[in-house]
From TrEMBL:
Keywords, ordered alphabetically: Membrane, Transmembrane, Transmembrane helix
Keyword Iron-sulfur: no
Topology in the lipid bilayer: Multi-pass membrane protein
Protein name, per record: DoxX family membrane protein
Transmembrane parts of this sequence: 6-26, 47-75, 81-99, 108-126
Example of a GO cellular component annotation carried by this entry: membrane
Subcellular location: Membrane
Superkingdom in the source lineage: Bacteria
Species per Swiss-Prot/TrEMBL record: Flavobacterium cellulosilyticum
Pfam families reported for this sequence: DoxX
Length: 127
C-alpha cells in the first residue's frame, strides 16, 4: 500500500464534498435562506443563488472525482482522477473561503483552512 495516505485523503474529500453536495441538493431552500442571510450585508447578496448552484456543482464534481481517483489509485496506481478531484476540492474550498471572508465570518474561514490543508496535500502527492 504505497498510496495509503493519498487514498485516505481522497476518501476524506469524497465524503466531505458528496455529503455537502447532497445536503445542498436535498435541502436547497434551507441552505439558500441561510446563505441569503449570511451574505445580506455583502456585495454578494444578489449572487447567492448562482453562487450556491456553482458551489453545489463543484462539490459534486469534486466528490465523484475523489471517489474515482481513490479507486483508480488503489487498483492501478493511476493518479489522474485523484489529482483532478483534489484540484476541484481546492477550488471549491477557495470559493467558500472567499465567501466567508466577504461575509467577515473569520471563524468560518478558519474552519475551511482545516479542509484546505489535506486537499493541497493531495494535490502535491498526486501531482
Amino acid at each position: 500500500m504505497n498510496n495509503a495516505a493519498s487514498i485516505l485523503i481522497l476518501v476524506f474529500l469524497a465524503i466531505t464534498f458528496i455529503q455537502s453536495g447532497y445536503d445542498k441538493l436535498f435541502h436547497w431552500k434551507e441552505n439558500l435562506d441561510f446563505m441569503k442571510e449570511h451574505f445580506a450585508e455583502t456585495r454578494l447578496k444578489k449572487l447567492v443563488r448562482l453562487a450556491l448552484l456553482h458551489l453545489l456543482v463543484l462539490e459534486l464534481i469534486s466528490g465523484v472525482l475523489c471517489v474515482v481517483g481513490a479507486i483508480e489509485l488503489f487498483v492501478s496506481n493511476g493518479r489522474t482522477f485523484g489529482l483532478y478531484g483534489a484540484v476541484f476540492s481546492c477550488i471549491s474550498l477557495l470559493m467558500m473561503l472567499f465567501g466567508q471572508r466577504m461575509a467577515k465570518d473569520y471563524d468560518g474561514a478558519r474552519t475551511i483552512v482545516l479542509y484546505f490543508i489535506p486537499a493541497v496535500m493531495a494535490v502535491y502527492w498526486l501531482n
